[in-house]
Amino acid sequence: MSQILSYAFVAFLLLMVGIKYWLSWRQVRHVAQHAAAVPAQFADRVSLEAHRKAASYTVAKTRLALVETAVSAALLVALTLLGGLQWIAGTLRDLAGTGFAFQMIFVCAVVILLGIVDLPFSWIRQFRIEARYGFNRMTPALWLTDLARSFALAALVGVPLLAAVLALMRGGGLWWIYAWILWVGFNALVLVLYPTVIAPLFNRFEPLKDSTLAQRIGALLLRTGFSSKGVFVMDGSRRSAHGNAYFTGLGRAKRIVFFDTLVERLQPAEIEAVLAHELGHFKLRHIAKRMVFSFAASLLVLALLGWLADRPWFYTGLGVTPALSGGNEGIALVLFILVLPVFTFVFAPLASYFSRRHEFEADAFAAHHASAADLINALVKLYEDNAATLTPDPIHSAFYDSHPPASLRVARLSVLAAS
After folding, report:
1. What is the full DSSP assignment across 186-223?
2. Hey, is 231 helix, strand or coil?
3. Which of 363, 370, 389 is nearest to 267 (CA)?
4. For residue 193, what pLDDT is reported?
5. Which pLDDT tens digit goes with each residue over 285-313?
6. What is the Cα–Cα distance from 168 to 103, expressed in whole angstroms?
């Protein structure tokens, strides 16, 4: 059985890498071929210079993703089939024994290793690609400060959660059910605390000062039956020139957040339309549906882990010799987290499809409660300001994109605007 798992892992890994490279190649070729002219649908709204910038930006990000894919695949093979995890486990057992401390240290060591490997790519994205296209506003000092804060927050929150999960795993039996309950409770707590405790660690949030815009938003909230703890503007421009809007929190802790870059760029009616779209996700229960699906999927995943953790071939098939006397909880958790994306990658288009369908539904909601024409204007400005390509490869977009292509989205909104 271990040999079958090894062959299956290699086959699915090659399939995943092959699909990623094929899709990326299609994306680069398609975007480059359509960079010379703005699509007729946007010719009166987007300049040729902005269109070419978006094409170049898309190609640059895609090429970096190709390198990331190669490095990630090589690291995954090195950690599993080539014995990397086995070596780390053996070294740590010599230092920390085989008890609970070993399990904790092992998982933390692998997480830190993966983070270190990702650091150069994060730096290149921020200070090479984002800077080259005029989006980066971070200094190296701020980047390092964010990194330190993220590490500290992960340690403060993640280590106790990890300890609890490993303790449940050591208890055996139906541990995965209790771990799932813990996971659901943890996510609910994060949703409640994020707006007022976590997010302010990285950004400043100020109440919306534009009284005219605030009044307009208040009327929209009244029309849609949405209540929140307030409307806030976030200093997104401190780190990036990209613009966005979102609402966050759970229950009565919900709050609406605009990036300051978006408030500066869009007209009040356009901001209202963007917010109406975001409210559509809430009122149409998209967020609730995604949470239910996520929790259901996590229960199945944990049940699968609970079954695999007791199978010796799960370890040996992925390059690790399990401890005969038990104490494999940390290794099982790491192995499972590392290889699961390889086997589930093929389901990515399904998730993308449902996400795009939700976006269309939220657009229709916005067209009903605000203005479809204003939403079109806002989207086109955001496409241009964020250098989002107007001509993605259709297959690449269908596989990856959580939002519909610009042409299809604007076309549907144009029909709603005319009705």
Report:
1. HHHHHHHHIIIIIGGGT--EEE---HHHHHHHHHHHHH
2. strand
3. 370
4. 81
5. 898 899 899 999 999 999 999 999 888 89
6. 13
- Complete DSSP assignment for 44-61: TTS-HHHHHHHHHHHHHH
Whole-angstrom Cα distance, residue 218 to residue 231? 9
Query: Residue 130 belongs to what domain range?
Result: 2-189+306-346
**Pick from 357, 361, 367, 347: nearest CA to 404:** 357
Question: Looking at the DSSP assignment, which residues form a beta bridge with residue 248?
Answer: 255
Is 150 inside any structural domain?
yes
d(CA 234, CA 169): 41
| Residue 340 falls inside a structural domain | yes
**Phi, psi of 44, rounded to the nearest 5 degrees:** -90, 0
N- to C-terminal Cα separation, the chain: 61
Q: How do 231-234 and 205-207 pair as beta strands?
A: antiparallel
Asked whether the beta carbons of 286 and 362 are under 8 A apart, the reply is yes
Least confident segment among 6-20, 227-241, 278-292, 335-349: 227-241
- The pairing of strands 255-259 and 205-207 is unpaired
Cα–Cα distance measured from residue 345 to residue 38, given in angstroms and rounded to the nearest whole number: 33
pLDDT tens digits, 93-127? 878 777 888 889 999 999 999 999 999 999 999 99
Does residue 12 form part of some domain?
yes
Distance CA 241, CA 392 (A): 22
Structural domain count of the chain: 1
pTM: 0.87
pLDDT at position 9 is: 94
Residue 208 in domain = no
What is the bridge-based pairing of β-strands 255-259 and 245-248?
antiparallel
Kindly state the helix (H) or strand (E) to which residue 258 belongs, with its residue range.
strand 255-259
Q: Is the pLDDT confidence value at 252 over 80?
A: no
Q: Which three-class secondary structure state does DSSP give residue 246?
A: strand
Number of Cβ atoms within 10 Å of the Cβ of 290:
15
